[in-house]
Design a protein that fits this description.
Length: 76
């Protein structure tokens, strides 16, 4: 049986938007906390994000950042 799921695209996403794709059952705040925790705990992922200029205060993930996140965490 085929799922009725839209295909994930690597593009710019708001942090809350991407967090909710990974954790749709959570409220936005918890989804953001969870995604951030996953990113920080994965040392290789976080290091690679910092190398390309990731700033935790930015509200949007660039396509490059999304590509790195999905490389390590898989697609939402």
């Amino acid at each position: 049986m085929e799922e009725n799921k839209t295909e994930f695209r690597v593009k710019a996403y708001g942090k809350a938007e991407l967090a909710m794709l990974y954790n749709p059952q959570m409220c936005t705040r918890e989804a953001l906390r969870t995604l951030t925790r996953w990113m920080v705990r994965n040392e290789e992922l976080y290091r690679e994000l910092l190398v390309i200029g990731y700033k935790k205060t930015c509200k949007i993930f660039t396509p490059k950042e999304v590509g790195i996140i999905t490389h390590y965490l898989g697609e939402p």
